[in-house]
Amino acid sequence: MPSSVILKSSYNAATATLTITFVSGLVYDYKNVPEQTYKAMITSGSKGTYFNKYIKGKYEWEKVA
């Protein structure tokens, strides 16, 4: 199901980095995210709600230029 907040996401298993591109165009890397957390987000009914509850504020992040 498309998200009204998250445009796209990808996961690098080698570095445990979750990259999220928001609808606004901003891109962030979230560090040390377990792969199962990423998989749960992409299969959830609401990616934005899952992100806000389980990822935002829980993992170190970095804005991608």
Q: Per the principal axes of the C-alpha atoms, what is the gross shape?
A: globular
SS elements, strand count? 4
The neighbouring-strand order within the major sheet is: 1-2-3-4
Poorly predicted tracts of residues:
none
**Main sheet: strands, sense, barrel:** 4 strands, antiparallel
Number of helices: 2
| Assembly state of the chains shown | single chain
Query: Structural class, from helix and strand content?
Result: alpha+beta
Overall average pLDDT: 94
Q: Could you tell me the radius of gyration in angstroms?
A: 11 Å
Distance from first to last alpha carbon: 27 Å
Order of helices and strands: EEEHHE
Q: What fraction strand?
A: 25-35%
Domain unit count = 1
Q: Helicity range of the residues?
A: 25-40%
Would you kindly provide a written description of the structure presented here, covering whatever features stand out?
The protein is α+β, with helices and mostly antiparallel strands and 65 residues long. The chain has one domain (6-64). The protein is built from two helices and four strands; from the N terminus they run E-E-E-H-H-E. It has helices at 35-43, 47-54; strands at 6-12, 17-22, 27-30, 61-64. It has a four-stranded antiparallel sheet, with helices on one face. Helix 1 runs antiparallel to helix 2 (47-54). The longest helix is centred in the middle third of the chain and has 9 residues, at 35-43. The radius of gyration is 11 Å and the shape is globular. It starts with 5 loop residues before the first strand and ends with a strand. The model has no long low-confidence stretch (mean pLDDT 94).
